[in-house]
């Protein structure tokens, strides 16, 4: 009888030791509910501070059958300059119908699973990336999101080599390869951007039908949610970079953030450019508010913020 108890105790100690040893790789306890993901800590796990801001029910991407609320459409028109005289007086449904002539009707997203840990690297364009040597760390992630004209060639050691998603607005479009999803931030939408042969399609190299699966469009309701819930309506609208960051929180279980913030002199400059305009700010974007929120998310252990050197 004593030997049986001793054997049981030894087995229990062995199991406990294994759990502790592997804690850095994946949480382990006896007993435990099945985790929502295979990461050490899943973003979607309940946390009062986070859940006051994070709304999983908001769809990040627009789909062909999505019905936008009147409040969200009005915010979109005013905040994103759709109401200007040069913009066409189109209804939301007319815009969507034109858009999905060449864009996949419903984006395919990888959902959370106890069997995987979805990791995102969000790579901003801040001068703080210079000489950071973050490149290999960035490339290690599953999803790598870049913004607008952020350059790679010549900066690989600091910014990495891979891109899975590039968030752009039409005026800032750049050439994309066939492994990168275009995530279109619909600022200043005009009719010409959605027609065959448009400047957007020429610049990105997109061809109707064959490349439609590579295009995703941010949902105006998602953009409004980021502005209202995450930024408390500061500024006229969120920056492309901050939209990309919140998008990553919705797409991944672990998020790492690189290349955000002003330089030591307070200039919001890009890592590939020589700064000519001193005291460069963020315009209509609430840059300081966005930066403080990134810092807070890091402090709350909801993402890892790599600030550069």
UniProtKB/TrEMBL annotation:
Q: Which residues cross the membrane?
A: none
User: Which pathway is it part of?
Assistant: Protein modification; protein glycosylation
Q: What is this protein called?
A: CMP-N-acetylneuraminate-beta-galactosamide-alpha-2,3-sialyltransferase 1
UniProt keyword annotation of Transcription present:
no
Q: Disulfide bonds, which pairs?
A: 120-252
What's this protein's family per the entry? Belongs to the glycosyltransferase 29 family.
**InterPro entries from the UniProt entry:** Beta-gal_alpha2-3_sialyltrans (IPR051757), Glyco_trans_29 (IPR001675), GT29-like_sf (IPR038578), Sialyl_trans (IPR012163)
